[in-house]
Amino acid sequence: MDLLLYAGLACLLVTGLLSGALTTGYQQRGNFYADSKDDRASRKKAANWFFLAGIVFLAAAGIVYLLFR
Question: Which spans are transmembrane here (predicted)?
Fold first, then answer.
């Protein structure tokens, strides 16, 4: 269960890094104008997949916790 929990939290951390949620407004603005549309689209797609994986891992950890505690 701990492995699933850590994997879920790691996926959510990677999602925050890829989406730019962990930066300041100035950094986000600079990143937006420095990247092309294709780069932003690929980062957004990867962030969405990591978010989905994080939610699945956390849900699995919750189910394992409820079943085997």
Answer: 47-68
Task: Report the C-alpha gap between 46 and 16 in whole angstroms.
Answer: 11
- What domain count does the chain have? 1
Q: Is the pLDDT of residue 1 over 90?
A: no
Once rounded to an integer, what is the mean pLDDT over residues 22-26?
91
**Residue at token pair 């394992």:** 64
Q: Are 63 and 13 in contact (CB under 8 A)?
A: no
pTM here is 0.89
Q: Where do runs of H (alpha helix) occur along the chain?
A: 2-19, 25-34, 37-68
